[in-house]
Structures are given as structure tokens and as C-alpha cells.
Design goal:
single chain, N-(1-d-carboxylethyl)-l-norvaline Dehydrogenase, domain 2, 2 domains, 367 residues, alpha/beta, Rossmann fold, eight-stranded mixed β-sheet, 12 strands
């Protein structure tokens, strides 16, 4: 595989700056795009980003281009890393559609649920002249933060991250294109599997909403997972988790349960989610959001729970617990997340049977 690939990172937030700097420090040609130039002005003036990465490569990551022009950003790029909240995927797809070309790889970090399906649907709606490969990661590879206008820090790099392309027949092409930079990525099956193994959809919205009073009263001055997950909250988490896994099962997918995920990711075990969460030492010290206007709700509800619930309703699975969480968020935010979210109609897959949907994500073919 040619190691001299050119990468473009879309998004200059916590994750985008860390990824751009890290890839540049590994000797790659990296362009950084952000739609608001004021957020990348200092990076453009300096020509790169300082990266602190304890235990790994640190230093000044020199970028080949820093721009707010998406056409310039995509020109000549072999791999496009989209590192923005999933609520921005639709806008990025619409803006990028005129410029994407055949064989270009677009990788969502992460896709949340049905991210690649949404991105591909928008490209069709916008009559994208090219045929790029759209893929998604199951989760973000870094735990990272922005430490200043042109400074990022990586706290941890995950050892294994599933990835899937749409269609799954392109998985190997995507993995080969990024392996020399990110050997941590592994074959995740297909984009339904990566999307339905979205654990943030289970943990983040439910814990946030069931601690709404405490968040607003203390401005998040309590431990999110430890104080926020009481036995009753854990029971509701288990209901949401069970419904997610049942939706996956209706599509022929064996999704990891919350207990299995905690054991795999953190070696945290217990008889139930309450015990396993409290046995995860890494959760101690993590504070709750300071406000309910947080991505745990405005991103996870429409981009994670709505598509999971939509799939359940389409294929005959009871999702009353998930629907309750969605409706509570709609009330709290005075927003119709069912209208704004990734419903099957908006994803362009409402008319597909299970067999047809599986064929689409595996081969790209549709009736």
C-alpha cells in the first residue's frame, strides 16, 4: 500500500486538532478544514498544531494547508477524516458533495448510529458527481482535548476500534488506506453493526436526563457515572440496552451488551450494570455535564437513539424505554428530535425489508 497518502481532517475541535497534529507528526501530508476560519486562524498563522501526547509522539505537527474552503480541503485528498459532532454530518455531506471524487475515502469519527447511511443518502440527494467510499468508526480513537487555539492533548489512544464501510465490501480498502497510520482499526462487519454497538446511545442520554435536577442545581458538580448511576437509574439503562440489542437482533446482528462492553473495554465486571459501572475505576472523577445543553442530549438523542428506535419500530421491536428517553429530551429541550433526527425516511431506507437493508449495507445494491 502506498504510504504517501494525503489526508484531510474536517473539523478543528477537540478531536480534529488532535488527529491532524498526530497524523502530521507521524510524517503524513495533512490538511485541516474548519468552516469558521476564526477557529483555525492561529493554526493557519503558525502552520500547525502543538501536540502533547504523554507516552507517545509529541511536538509540533506541521500541516500542509489550513483552510475554510471545503473545495480546497478536499482537492487531492486520498482520505477525508470527518471529526465533527454527528449532528454536523448532514451539513458536511451537503457541502462536500460537489467536490468528492471516485475512490476518495470519507471516514466518520465516529458515525454514531447510521452515520455512513445518512452521509451517503445526502450525497445522492445532492447529486454528488463522484463515487467516494463512505465509512464510519464505531467510536473515536482518542481521548483528547483542545488546550488552546493551536494546541491539543491526547490522553489515551484506544487499542482496537471497529470500522465499517458502506458497502462492507470496501472494508479492506479503507483499512489498507489507513493501516500505516492507524493499525488500531479492525474490520467491524458492516455499518449496521458499528452503529448498533454505539454504547454512548445507552449511557449518555439516560444518565443525563435522570439526573437533570442535580445537573441544573449543582452545574454538574457530581460524579456522572458514580453518583449519577443509582440502582434505579441502572435499571433504566438496562432497559435501553436490552432494547438496543433486540433491535440489532431483529437485523441479524449480535450486538454487545453493556455488561459485555464494560468487561471488554475496561475489564469492569458485575452482576448488573450498576455494579459493573461502579467497578470501572476510570469512571471515578468524571464530572457530570455542567448544563443540559450538552451533546449527551442534542447529539446522542437525534443521531443515536432516534435511528435505533426507528429501526425497532420498522421491524417490530418494542422500544418503549428508548422512546421515553427521546420524548423526555424533546420536552426538556423544547425540540422535536423525532423530526430532526435520523429517521428511516430521512436515511432513505424506510421502504427496505431486513433482507434488502442487509444487502444494501453489505454490497451497496438496492432494489
Amino acid at each position: 500500500m502506498n504510504d504517501n497518502l494525503r489526508y484531510t481532517v474536517i473539523g478543528a475541535g477537540n478531536g480534529g486538532k488532535a488527529m491532524a497534529a498526530h497524523m502530521a507528526l507521524m510524517g503524513n501530508e495533512v490538511t485541516l478544514y474548519n468552516r469558521t476560519f476564526a477557529n483555525i486562524e492561529v493554526i493557519a498563522e503558525r502552520g500547525g498544531i502543538d501536540l502533547d501526547n504523554p507516552g507517545g509522539i509529541s511536538g509540533f505537527g506541521k500541516l500542509v494547508k489550513v483552510t475554510d474552503n471545503i473545495g480546497e480541503a478536499l482537492e487531492g485528498a486520498h482520505v477525508v477524516m470527518v471529526v465533527v459532532p454527528s449532528s454536523g454530518h448532514r451539513d458536511i455531506a451537503a457541502a462536500a458533495a460537489p467536490y468528492l471524487r471516485d475512490g476518495q475515502i470519507v471516514l466518520l469519527h465516529p458515525g454514531r448510529t447510521c452515520g455512513a447511511i445518512e452521509f451517503a443518502q445526502v450525497l445522492r440527494e445532492k447529486n454528488c458527481p463522484g463515487k467516494p467510499i463512505v465509512a464510519e468508526a464505531e467510536t473515536f480513537i482518542y481521548a483528547s482535548r483542545s488546550e488552546g487555539p493551536s494546541h491539543a492533548r491526547i490522553f489515551r489512544i484506544k487499542e482496537s476500534v471497529p470500522l465499517a464501510a458502506l458497502p462492507a465490501t470496501k472494508n479492506r480498502a479503507v483499512l489498507d488506506a489507513i493501516h500505516h497510520v492507524y493499525p488500531q482499526y479492525i474490520d467491524g462487519g458492516n455499518v449496521l453493526k458499528t452503529g448498533l454497538n454505539n454504547m454512548g446511545a445507552v449511557f449518555h442520554p439516560t444518565i443525563t436526563l435522570l439526573n437533570a435536577g442535580w445537573i441544573e442545581t449543582t452545574h454538574g458538580d457530581f460524579e456522572f457515572y458514580i453518583d449519577g448511576v443509582s440502582p434505579s437509574v441502572a435499571k433504566l439503562l438496562e432497559t435501553v440496552d436490552r432494547e438496543r440489542c433486540t433491535v440489532a437482533s431483529s437485523l441479524g446482528i449480535r450486538a454487545r451488551t453493556g455488561l459485555e462492553w464494560l468487561a471488554m473495554a475496561y475489564d469492569a465486571r458485575g452482576e448488573n450494570l450498576h455494579d459493573a459501572i461502579h467497578n470501572q475505576s476510570g469512571y471515578y472523577g468524571i464530572k457530570a455535564p455542567a448544563t443540559l445543553n450538552h451533546r449527551y442530549l442534542f447529539e446522542e438523542i437525534p443521531m443515536s437513539l432516534v435511528p435505533i428506535a426507528s429501526l425497532g419500530l420498522r421491524y417490530g421491536v418494542s422500544v418503549r424505554g428508548i422512546d421515553a428517553i427521546i420524548r423526555l429530551a424533546c420536552i426538556v429541550h423544547n425540540t422535536d428530535y423525532w423530526r430532526k433526527g435520523r429517521t428511516l425516511d430521512r436515511l432513505g431506507i424506510a421502504d427496505l425489508s431486513v433482507e434488502e437493508l442487509t444487502k444494501y449495507v453489505e454490497t451497496g445494491e438496492r432494489e
